[in-house]
Fold this protein.
Amino acid sequence: MPKVGVLISGRGSNLQALIDAIADGRLAARIAVVISNKPGAGGLDRARAAGIETLTISHRDYSTRDAFDTAMASALVERRVRLVCLAGFMRLIGQPMLDAFPNAILNIHPSLLPAFPGTDAQAQAIAHGVKVSGATVHLVNGELDGGPIVLQASVEVCDDDTAESLSLRILEQEHRLYPEAVCRVLEAGWRLVGRRFVRSVATG
Ligand code: GAR
């Protein structure tokens, strides 16, 4: 089974979606470790409940971003992780991680990128007045939320939506999307054509 490492900062509902997909056979992978940069992150309890090793690597314990990144990369390499999944991980990924996992770090973001990168994407979408937003899973490169897109799902924005209500509907799509995107990246034969993530077998 290919080993996956998951990085979190908070409640970990996307982590749970990955755990559940593995448990019911929709995703052929094993989560080798869950790393949080926040000591009390709720997602750590979800990982422990599923019998997954957890680590806390706090950015506050490192004087530079590179040192923090290097610590995470070492922990993941030590466990022979093939793919790293950011699941509500709220720190920028730096060069040591990108070097250790070239085109092997995935992120999920609550908007239809390239619209509304960065924090509070759902509030940004409402403030802008878009009628459709959604979720994106993309490969991580050096740009903030700027890497090649693996999968997207759209969600209608209603007139009476708040950032919270929109977040909840987007989250439902995230939970469906992330396991599917991880499957696509773990399967053999995809390639990047410029910015485009292209599968060798076009199955939709
Ligand atoms: C999710 O909505 C995810 O897309 C978002 O944080 C939430 C984490 O929820 N990530 C970002 O905004 C990254 N820029 P979770 O902890 O319940 O998975």
